Amino acid sequence: MPIYNAPLKDMEFILNDVFKADEFWKNNQNLAHIDRATASAILEEMAKFAKHVILDLNRPADESGGAQFNNGSVTTPAGFKEAFKQFADGGWVGLGASEEWGGQNMPKMLTVLADEMIWSTNPSFMLYPLLTVGAGMALNDRASQQQKQTYLPKMYSGEWSGTMCLTEPHSGTDLGIIKTKAEPNADGSYQISGTKIFITSGEHDLCENIIHLVLAKTPNAPAGSRGISLFIVPKYLVNDDGSLGERNAVAAGSIEHKMGIKGSATCVMNFDAATGYMVGNENEGLAAMFVMMNYERLSMGIQGIGASEYAYQNAAQYATDRLQGRASTGAHSPEKPADSILVHADVRRMLLNVRANNEASRAFAVYVGQQLDITKFSTDAEAVEKANHRVALLTPIAKAYLTDTALQATLDAQMVFGGHGYIREWGMEQCIRDLRIAQIYEGTNGIQALDLIGRKTIKCNAGYMGEYLAEIRESVASLDDALTIKAKTLAICQQVEDLTQFIVEQAKTQADFPSAVAVDYLHAVGLLSFVYMFARISQAAQSKSEAFYQNKIMLGEYYVAKVLPDLAARAARIQSGASVMMQFQHDYFTAQA
Amino acid sequence: MPIYNAPLKDMEFILNDVFKADEFWKNNQNLAHIDRATASAILEEMAKFAKHVILDLNRPADESGGAQFNNGSVTTPAGFKEAFKQFADGGWVGLGASEEWGGQNMPKMLTVLADEMIWSTNPSFMLYPLLTVGAGMALNDRASQQQKQTYLPKMYSGEWSGTMCLTEPHSGTDLGIIKTKAEPNADGSYQISGTKIFITSGEHDLCENIIHLVLAKTPNAPAGSRGISLFIVPKYLVNDDGSLGERNAVAAGSIEHKMGIKGSATCVMNFDAATGYMVGNENEGLAAMFVMMNYERLSMGIQGIGASEYAYQNAAQYATDRLQGRASTGAHSPEKPADSILVHADVRRMLLNVRANNEASRAFAVYVGQQLDITKFSTDAEAVEKANHRVALLTPIAKAYLTDTALQATLDAQMVFGGHGYIREWGMEQCIRDLRIAQIYEGTNGIQALDLIGRKTIKCNAGYMGEYLAEIRESVASLDDALTIKAKTLAICQQVEDLTQFIVEQAKTQADFPSAVAVDYLHAVGLLSFVYMFARISQAAQSKSEAFYQNKIMLGEYYVAKVLPDLAARAARIQSGASVMMQFQHDYFTAQA
């Protein structure tokens, strides 16, 4: 049976030693409700819930075939209903939500750590509250006061859940071509008609009502993405007194059979002149939805960390227990029939790849979380503006780079098990299947890379990147010169700055250039970000002699020696541009040889 | 429904234009039974079988849960029995086997292409004949004439099948610690007792008998791998007249539930004083088994090509059909609601990664096949010796590099589908799950890397590599100087030569060094090999103006620009050595933070 123990000491190290959360909270009047002791208590409680409640539901949910669809209804896997009630009753759905609507208003740099534990132990379970929180954010940002009063308290209490209905069979990345229609009724509501696919938690048995946020086009709306509006479409209409009214004309037509996250119901949703209520202004639906999308995108990165941490813990334990072969330097445990496979450098290579990924990714998520907290809680307008730039720049990294590296990490961890990693009972193969979707949904990682290189870099003439590089350079100045990571980080800053300038220049004359090099650029910025995180970690550890801290510095050295070299490959690919891709004719790709 | 069309034109190009098979066959008296027309006919027949018989069985075998175990018996998925009979009746099991035992004695450079088609369309099906062929090779090499007469004709006719029983619960990579015992009987046979796991085709309903090749230890055998013998243990004992006798004391205890290749029965086999017959000499079992293992290892590489080709064909078709967004350079199909996603450079990047992998991998498999053919059919002792060195050096590349790159290729292909790639019905996720085992079984890819860097490089003081580099340099000398791949290939030769020398030097004083850099070295040699294949392909195409040939050269340019840069990262990792891994204490890996 797979194991999991929340890495609380590592989490507190990142939160308190690296990012000085307590100081940050004390210096911010809007964060007076949180302190170090409260944060620790929250993490400890979630650690128990993850380990003792939802971990045990994870393998059976997959083995049993996951969520089951029957005549319009969805039954979640055994135990999910009870666990979700416990989760909701514990106030976890509204952990980061406004106190006005029943939330706890906890800072993001803390909630990312709590979320990681759920992602580690039961990603299918996590998706049920996740979409509710995302939908809540969009409503909080754009809905009328009355709409907020009607929906948000019930959503944050876990009585109702939320969805985001964007994708249609012919329309995924390109939302400008959606066909779902919204016809106005006399009373100000709309009739929503169309089919949405890939709707996470579109139907399930955990909550008494489901609040769908639906993108649709009003009559005479402009073509393309400028003509999309956002609507609330509740599964059950809500009476004026807040009680549930009649069933709305929205229903699940089927659920998808997927590679993983089988416990999560991924639904085809049919809207048949369902009653809907516009959120915000007409034709501004996409912007409203992006409030939610950005939240989800950071969450996908945390899904990556969760999977990678879970994979690491299990692989490290297996490697310790598995006796096979002898150390190259002579028997390590001559009294045993063979040595633990931990003696083999190649096994350490895999484990250290995973561990380095976990520690850098976690630091990065807390770092981005802190930037989000500045945008939300700070009263310093200049700081808010800078943090907004940082969040804009780094959200694609958080989503795509953290899931790309996590997939590789889980594959490395599976390989530590040899043949046993391929057998279902060890849990590693499910971990990989469940994680793979994180690279695909909420905007594929390729789309994230286009967002980074286009809107976030070329469009602002690399301004956001310039601010980020300035911060990194200033930050590492206080590092001990004896730490190799100091010079390395500064060198990487220069290299990424040069690459960025090269891209901005090339894009001026070659329209295909950004798309051709986007993924490589995203990885270059990801590598810069992770080496920066190890620089921050080393900074927090440099004056402490205990093994716990010295190991942090050594892991940074491992990262620089064994992972960072990928930057040279990324840079060479960026230099080689677009022509080697674009020179092929369209029919080349499918011509039968 | 997933599609597949055997890439016959590409295959014939590699066989005839690049490696001049016809000339090779004509100049070799032992290959007089094969010519170009016969080879084409064989490939065309297999293409039909793959497309019209086993492709349709592939998805249902997975969806239905695969092979089913019931009270010691295994039922293969629907249609497998009829398809296997058709396969056996067609003479396919013995395609490469000696005519003396009913085979067709076809050269390996041809059979790798036929095998690729089966791996593309139904990898679970392929595993049933594959193990028979491998077991047949071990018997052909080491068994007595009487043993050969008894078993081989029935195995090559497909009436009986074969297995290889190596792994035990506590003993995988480290076969020196196996516990299965062989006690001598008075009649010269042995009683075999023990438990073997992960036995592919250990039990099934396709054949009337199953011939297990089992590694076991005789009484007083030396400790470790020098004390292992090989035994034939038939499921049903064979009477002197060749008819089936009584059931032997060997039975499947269960089958594994796996990530993929669910149609293949992976069995726990219990030997309870089963009657066995020693093959070859006592204590030489491991060497006998390695005859088979090397054969299987090349097959795993072909499994990679098969999956990658299948993934490419489906992704390219999807990309052509899927309309989403507009080209960066302006609408490509203004009459349609959106352009085919083929207009996007990032989509082309993924497709070209896969296609470049297919064409280089396929060329490499044929190249290694030709080297194997020289070792088997040539009468020139010097040529045989050189080919033996080449096969020794490149078998780990064929097994590990071709499966590492294939997994990445199938992941790229899945990503082309966006969310649809994660849905089971499109077949892409099954392709990945089925392929993943190829990196793990028959010696994990990490073990292959250790074999390459240890036995195949350091042990011979890089002699095999020196011969390989000399061949590459000589071969590219005739390339047109205008082709960028010429200078690039020569530069890479120098780089890999330098890395190899560096490794040989470091290994003299650092016992952990080879294990620490083995996987990176394997990838470096893999990249060298693939650029060499593109050089050979460009050589065959350089004088021809048709698009088919010019596209081959352009794909080589893509490879050099976008894939080969990984070599810089591999080299940097090799330079950074072992200390960053070995400096951590053992308990670091599992210490609860």
Automatic annotation (TrEMBL), chains A, B:
GO terms for molecular function: flavin adenine dinucleotide binding; oxidoreductase activity, acting on the CH-CH group of donors. It is an enzyme of class 1 (oxidoreductase). InterPro entries: Acyl-CoA_dh-like_C_dom (IPR025878), Acyl-CoA_Oxase/DH_mid-dom (IPR006091), Acyl-CoA_Oxase/DH_mid-dom_sf (IPR046373), AcylCo_DH-like_C (IPR036250), AcylCo_DH/oxidase_C (IPR009075), AcylCoA_DH/ox_N (IPR013786), AcylCoA_DH/ox_N_sf (IPR037069), AcylCoA_DH/oxidase_NM_dom_sf (IPR009100). Residues 164-272 form the Acyl-CoA oxidase/dehydrogenase middle domain. Signal peptide: none annotated. It holds the Pfam family Acyl-CoA_dh_N. Its cofactor is FAD. Keywords: FAD, Flavoprotein, Oxidoreductase. Residues 41-159 form the Acyl-CoA dehydrogenase/oxidase N-terminal domain. It catalyses: 3-(methylsulfanyl)propanoyl-CoA + oxidized [electron-transfer flavoprotein] + H(+) = 3-(methylsulfanyl)acryloyl-CoA + reduced [electron-transfer flavoprotein]. Residues 469-584 form the Acetyl-CoA dehydrogenase-like C-terminal domain. Residues 283-451 form the Acyl-CoA dehydrogenase/oxidase C-terminal domain. Its EC number is 1.3.99.41. Belongs to the acyl-CoA dehydrogenase family. Involved in the assimilation of dimethylsulphoniopropionate (DMSP), an important compound in the fixation of carbon in marine phytoplankton, by mediating the conversion of 3-(methylthio)propanoyl-CoA (MMPA-CoA) to 3-(methylthio)acryloyl-CoA (MTA-CoA). This is 3-methylmercaptopropionyl-CoA dehydrogenase. It comes from Acinetobacter lanii.
